[in-house]
């Protein structure tokens, strides 16, 4: 089967009534939480995970994916109109987007963001389809040593590319790995770190872990005393960009798509890094009268395209290798496991409908988002006035019901509160939750592949570096660590992420 | 300036972070110490966690040591009483859902949750929790068919 046949096959799945409905629901929810500040996609997906129990596996993934890329659209709306990025990935959009709005070009800025996102979404769908197959086929040949190397590579790269202090991020990975291996040891049946609690025999509940870490701690963060100034909403002028506008936005959008597609695939990449990098690139490339920071259209088109492309291509390693590169993808892995599907290269062969259906649904979802966002933009802006005091009790209720409904266990609920406070403390200490979550998901896999490698080699450590693939992967991980630790690169890395705060 | 009740504290962040991380390392390490270590060709259940704990301990120490040379900064955090309400709210659901039933459990969860928000009238809090409870019951019990009773054994007397 070639690419076109596969995509057609995927379209068949994605166009079923159920899948269309849930795709729409996901995009709608995504836009909603993208607009609302203080509610992120990771937390939302964690909250909705228990609800996907009753759904078909492909339907549930299609909906959850819609939330992720939908949030990229919604986040840009508030970034432009209110200078309040709903999502981290839209932070750079606010710089020039809000400036455009202040000069009376709010409509054009919104249209630029939506059209660039749509262009990127369309291209990225094809990129995902084209690259997923060869990568998946390669991964089928992986043995335990290669998988061990791949996981190490993924974990290390995810922290070198993400924001935050490197050493703390690595500590978070290791802590996550430890939380991940709580439960019965597969080789001996010994219960590890369970304190004799039977509810922990199968490990810490993923939903309790993720909901506490993201959902509850987010609430605590939002309830901090703050003196945030109130924002005024900019008026929306004409929406349709002129031909000259489209000419101006097309090249930055295409460059952003390219950059986002590449960065999205890398662990730790995804939407946020892509948009920041694209803004930096457009700023470098600009010559002539374009002034960044004063309402440059290029500064909206590039990052918006990049974050949408990055959001989509970050599915590639998750779908083909079973290795999540960021927090949202860790949730997707959780969603697959709830459905009894082991993420990895076998998904493509055993569940082709899920695989290609999800990819095809991304394009359909992007089309829906274009329609949802441009004409209905006024409606979304009204939502901004929803008081947070009404929202967070609802989030608490949803978290409690969701976590409890999985095992009907009081222990799981206690873990929810426990990880809520842990997540909050770690946040206050500048420790990122994403590496913790990645470690948690990958902990059992890492241990299992390490043990199997060494059993096969009869205790010979050199087995871990016996194949060219594992040597390359481990070498690249080491190189990434060294490069990021050099003072020059450390400065660039800090500057890329600080861009939005200037 | 350190004022716990209003939620500000001045600390050397990285020192606290390092010690916090190291504490987890010691906790996990101490437990894993009791598991069989095995050898490299046949790893026991204690092998991997013990190594991880050791690495985590070193990382925590490194963070703390580096933090000693940083300057203390002021930090704002959520008022402890609000924190307690937020953490207690889901717990209440777990405790109440069997005896009192879903409807009352959600009402209590939402109500305690609203207590974490300042400046709401008691009536508003009650209305918000009541509406949430009815909505949640409609969606989860009647809509999605979650196998939980809307009214618990307190009502079956």
Brief summary of the model shown:
By secondary structure, chain A is mainly alpha-helical. Chain A has 22 helices and 2 strands.
Short descriptors:
heterodimer, A: 502 residues, mainly alpha, two-stranded antiparallel ribbon, 2 strands, globular, B: mainly alpha, 2 domains, 4 strands, 60% helix, flat
Strand and helix map with partners:
The complex is a heterodimer of chains A (about 500) and B (about 160).
Chain A: H1 3-14, H2 17-35, H3 41-48, H4 57-82, H5 91-102, H6 106-140, H7 144-161, H8 166-180, E1 183-184, E2 191-192, H9 206-222, H10 243-265, H11 271-285, H12 298-313, H13 315-321, H14 327-338, H15 346-350, H16 352-373, H17 377-383, H18 388-407, H19 410-428, H20 433-456, H21 468-485, H22 487-498
Antiparallel strand pairs in A: 1-2
Helix pairs in contact in A: 1-16, 2-4, 2-16, 3-4, 3-9, 3-14, 4-5, 4-6, 4-12, 4-14, 4-16, 5-6, 5-12, 6-10, 6-12, 6-13, 6-16, 7-8, 7-20, 7-21, 8-20, 9-18, 9-19, 9-20, 10-11, 10-12, 11-12, 14-20, 18-19
Chain B: E1 8-11, H1 13-32, E2 38-39, E3 42-43, H2 47-68, E4 73-76, H3 80-96, H4 102-114, H5 122-143
Antiparallel strand pairs in B: 1-4, 2-3
Helix pairs in contact in B: 1-2, 3-4, 4-5
